Amino acid sequence: MDERKVRVRFAPSPTGPLHIGGVRTALYNYLFAKQHQGDLIFRIEDTDSNRFVLGAEEYILESFEWLGIRFDEGVGFGGNYGPYRQSERREIYRKYVEALLDNGTAYVAFDTPEELNAKRKEMKNFQYDATTRMQMCNALTLSKEEVDAWLAEGKQYVVRFKVEPNIDVHVEDLIRGDVVVRSSVLDDKVLYKSADDLPTYHLANIVDDHLMGVTHVIRGEEWLPSAPLHVLLYRAFGWEDTMPCFAHLPLLLKPEGNGKLSKRDGDRLGFPVFPLEWRDPATGESSSGYRESGYLPEALINFLALLGWNPGNDREIFSMDELIEWFDLAHCSKSGARFDYEKAKWFNHEHILRKDDEEIADMFIPILQEHGVEAPREKVVAVVGMMKDRVSFVKDLWDTCKFFFVAPTEYDEKTRTKHWKEDSPRYMIELADLLEGLHDFSLQNQETTVMQWIADKRYNTGAIMNAFRLTLVGEGKGPHMFDISALLGKEETLRRMRRAIAVLK
Ligand code: GLU
């Protein structure tokens, strides 16, 4: 079996926007596929038409497009194992349902929802299984004639899996080891419903994994309880030899307290739980996304990669290619991973630092334009290079750097009280004259000239520099003073100084 080409799949149900936990599952599948030169399949599990949400499939595809998670085949990508949308595979499933009915591992049942409810009322903890199935209305309790007659009449039925009691079912899990479950705790799951002529998730999932040659099932921990049934289904079909390896990923936990991360945590604490913004088509309600909140896809990928996996040392920053090289299911943890939103911001900051100034400038230019600023690209690149280590998001560059593009019209009151003294106008007039005389307005030349002047005049460096900053920036923040003046250029520097001198007196 290890000889088979690695084939993994991400198989969402289009029931709404993709939750961030689903993004992590897809990412781990992608990393695993890439590092084994295998294939990643995108399959849509839409057999539950009641839960279908319009636009969900497109949303999911757009999310992966943005994140750089590429599929080799599937819905939207083509391939030799299609169709990849389960609702288009009815004929295929019908055949496999028949196979189980024929070999006696499944049976037809006619119990109506009312009858099942009555039974649940009558028996505490009722479960449809080996101990109760003989009290129910199904092909095991009815005569063949009765069953045939009902089927001929078109009475609605389901097909249930016949779970043999008292056997130990082993799930070999690459993260959790040998997980053993006693078959008696499992119920006779419904595999097919005549009412919509569609299989349920369990049957469709197994049939497709088998037919699509899936070698590894990497998915969220919430699917672990289904795994023993899946193992039994593989056996019932006689497909033991191609049974995939399982890997159930740890839950994503709330930022604080117990339990699984939910959309409500995001709303309450102010962070997105979806990759892209989502507008619910039914209610019109929208939920924020990582993309619209200003995250770089690289940063979100890096953050998610480390939620449940670690490289075995304390390295934290990884590019996608490095993750492909380093990722390893054996280093995934069994216990839940706490969703530390502050850490996501830190990753964004770190990835901004690692990106070319040119690339960040290209993201910043539209933000400048929104504020009515048209600046030469070289200037934006230079500002970005100087300032990007101060922000967690590209959009925050505006507040941090706007003084490079827009001259101050007001002067911060506190800075003014602290740094604009009686002598300040005189100092600034002298300084402006000094700078005006410079041919070479480079940072270096300004710095040497000004420092020499301060030393010759025995002025106080702090007093000069703080006042100078107030004239150019309008407040007490910003990088090194001559970095600012060099970037603004002589003309603009002098204009700002003269205006400040006039306004501040
Ligand atoms: N359709 C399931 C989901 O929505 C897939 C579970 C699996 O990977 O087996 O997550």
How would you sum up this structure, described in words?
The radius of gyration is 33 Å and the shape is elongated. It contains 19 helices and 15 strands. It is α/β, with parallel strands linked by helices and 505 residues long. The model has no long low-confidence stretch (mean pLDDT 96). The strands form 6 sheets. A 4-stranded antiparallel β-sheet has the order 4-5-8-9. Strands 1-2-3 form a 3-stranded parallel β-sheet. A two-stranded antiparallel ribbon has the order 6-7. It binds glutamic acid. Glutamic acid (GLU) is lined by residues 11-13, 45, 205, 219, 223. Glutamic acid binds next to loops.
Distinctive features:
505 residues, binds glutamic acid, 19 helices, 15 strands, elongated, four-stranded antiparallel beta sheet, three-stranded parallel beta sheet, alpha/beta
- The portion of residues assigned to helices is 40-55%
**Adjacency order of strands in the biggest sheet:** 4-5-8-9
Structural class: alpha/beta
Mean pLDDT across every amino acid position:
96
The ligands bound in this entry are: glutamic acid
Residue stretches low in confidence (pLDDT < 50, at least 5 long) are none
Largest sheet: 4 strands, antiparallel
Shape: elongated
Number of helices: 19
Terminal residue distance: 84 Å
As a whole number of angstroms, the C-alpha radius of gyration is: 33 Å
Care to count the β-strands? 15
Strand composition percent = 5-15%
